[in-house]
Amino acid sequence: MEDLAMINHDQAVTDEESLKLEVASQWKLMWWKFRKHKLAMISGAMVIAFYVVALFCEFLAPNVPTTYLDIYATAPPQPVSLFYEGKWMPHVKGLTYERDPISLRKTWIVDESITVPIGFFVRGDPYKMWGFIPLDLHLFGSKHPGDPFYLMGADMIGRDVFSRLIYSSRVSLTVGLVGMVISLSIGILLGGVSGLVGGALDNIIQRIIEILMSIPTLPVWLALAAVVPIDWPALRVYFMISIILSLISWTGMARVVRSKFLALREEDFVMAAMLDGCGKTRLILRHMLPSFLSHIIASITLWIPGLILGETALSFLGLGLRPPVVSWGVMLQDTQKVAVIARYPWLLAPGGAVFLIVLTLNFLGDGLRDAADPY
Amino acid sequence: MWKYLLRRGLYALFTVWVISILAFAIIQLPPGDYVTDLIDDLRAQAGNVPPEWEERMRQIYGFDDPFIVQYYKWMRNIVLKGQFGYSFFYKRDAGEMIVERLPMSFALSLFSTLFVWIVALPIGFYSAVRRYSIVDYAASFMGFFGMAIPNFLLALIVLFITYKYMGAAVLGLFSDKFVDAPWSWAKFVDLLKHVWVPMVIIGIGSTAGLIRTMRANLLDELNKPYVETARAKGLSEWRLLIKYPLRHALNPFVSTLGWMLPGLVSGEVIVSMVLNLPTSGPVLYTSLVRQDQYVAAGFILMLSTLTVIGTFISDLLLAWVDPRIRLQ
């Protein structure tokens, strides 16, 4: 008897669940499916964290990216100690260096006698939040401005690598987004036309895409980037680079959109809408777009890493963004010589950031793609 | 079958033609040309230079001609005489430089392709057959790692590690004594000793995608009724896998060659610059920065042709592997 009750109870639970499933909206189903993908969830949170850092980089960075202390050029990363003589006082030790009399090479020594106290919400370099709110509050940093505090070491002229890394995220992460918007517009337009109209036009667009896809991207990116005049202002170069990156990469997006339109054209609900006398624009926007929007979002997530990598490669080679703009690629320019990396390996830190964001975007995109079709 | 081949062949030719126009147009984009640079240099050295000189030089080089005329001359020389023009920066024949460098790029891309195939085929196969095994997880981890790390960064890290722990960075494709030596068996062996580093660096990014494609395709096949039938008839598992689903799953392997090659060539260009390999990358870069237009256009054209030929070969292979295509 008890067993029977249990079974009935189970039955009731599954009924309730299936009812919940049946009435849930498409987006809710996707969310439920996505939630099961743990790796994608964690990656999603990290991607959001990356973009939050990019948004508030001025506040989060202990220094302004242009601040330099030339006596601390090439200073190594300083490990943070949380306690000082048994008391809670986060600090780093000071640094001094000795010069080799022959090679003139610096050897850094941790100076135990100097402690640099660090704290939260300290006053430091003045900056303009988002370019217009003048502030000097930093989330954390050395309590006395001018004291050395290099979480990830200093670069060749004594700028804080950590602060620059944080500032760079704004440029490096958005260059992909701007490029994405452009690729997406071209891709959806041409892919949509190709998939909906079909016929000769479809053929021509497909041939163009195939030709563009057979060109190795990097040489063409290099060629186009080399055209950008040296005396252009930073903002214009930034937009130019994102346009260059998206000029070739819209092809993949166009293919995705086209194949979705082709598949949807045959669906019953589209046929029904057409028979109901639904106009073309309404048909696309109201009936077709919502059913493949999720796929587009997944594709975008898998697409941005390519653009981030592209910008990094171009800037690394000196043909992309240029100083004073800081991006991860620009920072990596210093590491072109093996002798530099061997002596100051912490200069490779921006590479770690690139790796992390590309990895998390890929995991996130994978999860989204799996969830995009929840039925 | 022949009709299919002819169509693909003509199509490849057409693609190369369009690319040649694009390549020539791109290098014409920057304001000024090599004469501008030259005159600037002359002015810096000798002070004033009469403007007629500049005019005359433009006439000699044909820089004042309309785009079509310049393109026509360029193309005619390539097609009829195999001449790619003159390198203003290196002061030598551009074609010679291409002949010197391009085969190396070709070899490196070929080696990388082989590497990708050799690694991705068994791992993809194993991942599909033994799903959720340690190898499966390790493969996807490796795959994601390869995909997320920019190849030039990987090259830098390899340089760093070899420099730090082996005393010398792995630069170049040959040992010192073979760099200028004529081709011989010993030189070839020396090349093999060096080529694996760039080969792995360039290939690893594409390996991930291919492993996943292979795995997904094989998984689809494994659930099909014919596999069940074969199993029911008592065919041994191994024989069954090799004989039917694997052959099916190989199809996209060949067809992805077309889109994999552009990526490999791109990777080759940038990795060569970091590792200082005697391939197209470093020369292409210099020519672009120096507005050495014929060298730049020649290299872009030939590198793209390389990938188009690769795509054509993949079409041929596809027709060979998949009878359905032959019948089209």
Note poorly predicted spans of chain A. Answer: none
Compute the number of strand runs of chain B: 2
Residues in helices of chain A, as a percent range: 55-70%
Separation of the first and last Cα atoms of chain A: 37 Å
Overall average pLDDT of chain B: 81
Q: What is the residue-averaged pLDDT of chain A? A: 80
Largest sheet of chain B: 2 strands, antiparallel
Query: What is the helix fraction of residues of chain B, given as a range?
Result: over 70%
Structure description:
The complex is a heterodimer of chains A (375) and B (328). Chain A is of the alpha+beta class. Chain A is 61% helix and 14% strand. Chain A has 13 helices and four strands. Chain A has helices at residues 2-23, 26-36, 38-55, 57-60, 161-197, 199-214, 217-227, 234-265, 268-275, 280-316, 328-332, 338-343, 349-371; strands at residues 81-84, 87-99, 106-129, 133-142. Chain A has a four-stranded antiparallel beta sheet. In chain A, helix 3 (38-55) packs across helix 13 and helix 5 packs antiparallel against helix 10. Chain A starts with a helix and ends with a helix. The longest helix of chain B has 38 residues, at 185-222. Chain B contains 15 helices and two strands. With 328 residues, chain B is mostly helical. A two-stranded antiparallel sheet of chain B has the order 1-2. Chain B is globular and about 90 Å long. At the A-B interface, helix 6, helix 7, helix 10, helix 12 and helix 13 of A face helix 1, helix 6, helix 7, helix 12 and helix 13 of B.
